[in-house]
DNA sequence: CGTGATTTTGAGCCCGATCAAGTTGAGTGG
DNA sequence: CCACTCAACTTGATCGGGCTCAAAATCACG
């Protein structure tokens, strides 16, 4: 969005609809007719799939600034996963049809879509690699390091932007496994109190 | 590629370089300076990452028609993973710089990039969901069903296009786990002889 | 201070990784 | 055509990480 030129931006805003949802509201379900793609303005959205036993697995957690369902822009008329508000949220909604047309005319829009898809593809590939290579404590350490306000210094403090159960899903873990991972990181100088996480030795965390 | 107009196609072919590699050759490594993105013409390419112990995990297996490293088109000057020829292969190579310039001018090229990124993103998200929801036999069943020549009929036969160890990596399994998954599918009517796989009852496989 | 949701802790279990043989298979040279 | 060789695959045994279920503890909030 930020990269759009003035006219392109104006035309995108023209077709945007802002909507609010309450915690646990379903925005759309897998297989439903897809009309819109979304951009999160505030709060967090959970994208997940179900297996045939009804077990849920998170595919992605979207926060402010993130878009989702944009992979339907080129082809596809069905949503590929379920999406649910993790809390009270505000999202902007764009009709796929209109954005497709706009991308044809405004090369800025096409470029922004490419940027956005690339970023997601990167994150998603990282996610696969992490799932396949790292243990639970390593994933948590990795998450903490990626969300450290500063790269430098020995200690840091992070406030989780959402519930731990949501973080667990994001990392592909059961909530219990996340909890145990945190307690196993205590020996590496990680202290958890509610949503506040203290890291006493950043370089020690990198060794995990 | 197939969707490009005549002039766009010509300009892409103009900047393409065709190269061959032998089995196990490394095309590029994670962290190296990225100059090209690739399109597989024949054979299979393995994209993988290493953890700090040197264990490898496949992120994607690319076959004829697949492109890789295209997520570097918008930003990024380093490869994000290692790529290795799984056998004797032929690939086309495109300079990122030139394709970026071309995408600006030819909207067909931009559209093709969007298409291609969307497809990958979809596949990659599917991969995460499968990793998190399905057991080994379910993943194998899923793969077989997705690669059945026909949707209809009760029985089918598939010839794997690559080694089983490559399939194992693609599905996020150790080769031993793939082998055990196949043998556990025997009771569902799956017979394996070399690379040839016979499925006696497609609908039974869907139940797995 | 009470209530319900969230998180932590414990115990048991299962899936898949790993290591170590064995077996099959493909390609090579006699 | 057959033995040889090396790689690929299978099978067995063991191990460990993370899931599940259950219960206790903590937290958020009225």
From TrEMBL, chains A, B:
Cyclic nucleotide-binding domain: residues covered: 1-73
Pfam families: cNMP_binding (PF00027), HTH_Crp_2 (PF13545)
A GO cellular-component term linked to this record: cytosol
Protein name (record): Crp/Fnr family transcriptional regulator
SMART domains xref list: cNMP, HTH_CRP
UniProtKB keywords: DNA-binding, Transcription, Transcription regulation
Gene3D superfamilies: Jelly Rolls (2.60.120.10), Winged helix-like DNA-binding domain superfamily/Winged helix DNA-binding domain (1.10.10.10)
Highest taxon listed in the record's lineage: Bacteria
Organism per entry: Ciceribacter naphthalenivorans
Molecular function terms, GO-annotated: DNA binding; DNA-binding transcription factor activity
Entries under InterPro entries matching the protein: cNMP-bd_dom, cNMP-bd_dom_sf, Env_Response_Regulators, HTH_CRP, RmlC-like_jellyroll, WH-like_DNA-bd_sf, WH_DNA-bd_sf
Domain HTH crp-type: 134-203
